[in-house]
Write a structure and sequence with these properties.
It is a single chain. The chain has two domains: 141 residues, Rossmann fold (3-Layer(aba) Sandwich); 119 residues, HUPs (Rossmann fold), CATH 3.40.50.620. Helices cover 40% and strands 22% of the residues. It contains nine helices and twelve strands. The strands form two sheets. It has a ten-stranded mixed beta sheet with strand order 5-2-1-6-7-12-11-8-9-10, sandwiched between helices. Helix 5 packs across helix 6. It is elongated, with a radius of gyration of 19 Å. The C terminus is likely disordered.
Length: 288
């Protein structure tokens, strides 16, 4: 059975992410794993609520942590009685644990809560979240503070035509089909001289996707605008999307959007869960 991991720091943000993950686990028939990573000796960050916790504030013993996780598991099963839910805890660094686990194919999706370190409402995604989004090899959904899950009816995926985006689309078709949702694949052409080339690339990319997966509710869009961030934001808001997705790779659209200042602005404006995929090179296995 495929597994969704939810990093747990026992905060409201983590609880919110857990409820979001439960809804996806139910639709995709996946197992849920609640993971707590702690550091006993120095300041650390948990779950990426990005709240700094000093060693003196960490008073729970491993047995107490296990008992708290059991309570969270009971809470999860109370929401969905047929849910398969496990707990896991370890001492270490959250990003490292998630990266190692994803590389060992121990889980297939991470759903995590997010909150800025400064506590400012404007800051939605902090530096630790960005590290996880960029470095882990499995898909990650970052859920905004206070976001209540609603049925996923529209998914927007921003593509740079990277070949691994085809594998990402396969996963999104699986997710979209489970919710009977529309899947909108979007490319922003920000250079007038390249627009004819972008059109040809889109047609070729559509052909590659069609060879890999078929879905009646999938559509492709070429947006011919100059400002990539503004164009994507306007499209997502206009279409009333429920989930925004993109792949992370060097020198890509994701690199642009995951720069800290742009991420803060973009995420604050759209206030949607963000799904990211780790781009891979030829010879690697599929994402999902």
């Amino acid at each position: 059975m495929k597994t969704i991991v939810v990093p747990v720091d026992f905060s409201e943000n983590a609880k919110n992410a857990m409820f979001y993950a439960i809804s996806i686990a139910k639709k995709l028939k996946m197992k849920l794993m609640l993971m707590h990573v702690f550091h006993q000796s120095e300041a650390d960050t948990f779950c990426d609520s990005l709240k700094v916790v000093t060693g003196s504030e960490i008073t729970d013993t491993p047995d107490e942590i296990k008992n708290r996780l059991k309570l969270w598991r009971e809470m999860a099963v109370a929401v969905e009685k047929d849910l398969c839910c496990e707990i896991s805890y370890a001492e270490g660094n959250l990003e490292d644990e998630l990266k190692k686990g994803s590389e060992r194919n121990e889980y297939d999706l991470i759903v995590m809560g997010t909150k800025g370190a400064s506590g400012l409402k404007r800051i939605f995604i902090g530096s630790n979240t960005v590290k996880v989004l960029k470095e882990v090899s499995c898909p990650v959904i970052a859920v905004p503070p206070g976001y209540n899950f609603k049925e996923i009816k529209k998914v927007v995926f921003a593509t740079d035509y990277h070949y691994s985006d085809v594998a990402a689309i396969r996963f999104m078709v699986q997710l979209s089909r489970a919710f009977d949702a529309e899947l909108m694949v979007v490319h922003v052409s920000d250079d007038q001289l390249k627009r004819r080339l972008d059109q040809d690339l889109l047609e070729y990319f559509m052909g590659q996707v069609a060879l890999a997966v078929q879905y009646d509710k999938m559509k492709f869009y070429l947006l011919e605008e100059g400002d990539v961030k503004k164009t994507l934001k306007d499209f997502v808001l206009r279409e009333k999307a429920d989930l925004f997705a993109l792949s992370t790779e060097k020198h890509s659209l994701a690199e642009l959007l995951l720069r800290k200042s742009l991420t803060e602005q973009f995420a604050y404006q759209i206030r949607l869960p963000l799904l990211t995929f780790h781009a891979f090179d030829f010879g690697d296995n599929d994402i999902f």
